[in-house]
């Protein structure tokens, strides 16, 4: 099942480390089947607050994403970003193509019945 690494990163002043990080990043995730899905494209806030930019990388599965995150190639460049850009990064599983929210609805109905 497809997995996603999603980063919400705060805007940062231009820095040579960030340029190097962006240049080197694809070569760290591509061997693990990763590809950019979103890279700091414009976004529209529909509800709530969402500052900064979004980066989303898709992987074939969670294991591939985790292997990339832990890889020596990525760990070597991660400080180039983290020294200059604050943000939140998550790894999340997608849902199968045939997903329907039946299980979630069943769980909620059971919780409502129990209360």
From TrEMBL:
SUPFAM superfamilies: Dimeric alpha+beta barrel
Gene3D superfamilies found in the cross-reference section: 3.30.70.100
Domain DUF1330: 2-95
InterPro entries to which the protein is assigned, alphabetical: Dimeric_a/b-barrel (IPR011008), DUF1330 (IPR010753)
Protein name: DUF1330 domain-containing protein
Organism, scientific name: Actinomadura harenae
Lineage: Bacteria, Bacillati, Actinomycetota, Actinomycetes, Streptosporangiales
């Amino acid at each position: 099942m497809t997995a996603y690494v999603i980063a919400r990163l705060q805007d940062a002043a231009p820095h040579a480390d960030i340029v190097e990080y962006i240049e080197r990043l694809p070569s760290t995730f591509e061997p693990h089947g990763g590809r950019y899905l979103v890279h700091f494209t414009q976004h529209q806030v529909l509800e709530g607050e969402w500052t900064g930019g979004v980066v989303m990388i898709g992987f074939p599965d969670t294991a591939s994403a985790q292997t990339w995150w832990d890889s020596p190639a990525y760990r070597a460049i991660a400080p180039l970003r983290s020294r200059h850009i604050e943000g939140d990064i998550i790894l999340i599983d997608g849902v199968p193509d045939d997903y329907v929210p039946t299980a979630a609805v069943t769980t909620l109905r059971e919780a409502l019945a129990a209360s």
